[in-house]
Design a protein that fits this description.
By secondary structure, this protein is mainly alpha-helical. It has a domain of 80 residues: Fumarate reductase/succinate dehydrogenase, transmembrane subunit (3 helical TM bundles of succinate and fumarate reductases, Up-down Bundle). It is 74% helix and 0% strand. The longest helix is centred in the N-terminal third of the chain and has 28 residues. The chain starts with 18 loop residues before the first helix and ends with a helix. The mean pLDDT is 92. This is Succinate dehydrogenase cytochrome b556 subunit.
Amino acid sequence: MQTKQRPVFLELPNIRLPIPGIVSILHRISGVILFVSLPLLLCFLSGTLSREAAFETYRAAVSNPFVKLALIGLLWAYLHHLLAGIRFLFLDTHKGLELQTARTTAKLVFVAALILTVAIGAWLW
């Protein structure tokens, strides 16, 4: 007779996180995206300040729709990371820890990052 409980198989696609959990995971993902892309962006932009030809190369690259979409993705990552970081600072000071407030602020971060990304992306496009 077996007395130990067998390990439970977790079906990851069937696990449903609450909205604060999704915002938290997206905060981490956006931070990684920003960390990885920062050296590339700095390298890409460094030449634009020194030579006119490098600036024209930059302008030609940024006019490509795929590059624009990638930059809008980075804009979303920045805005989400910023807004979620401010939310987490409030949570660290024990503000907004109630369940309903935490859910509301998480939804607000998620929606505000998307709205700001669309607004700024449309303005820059």
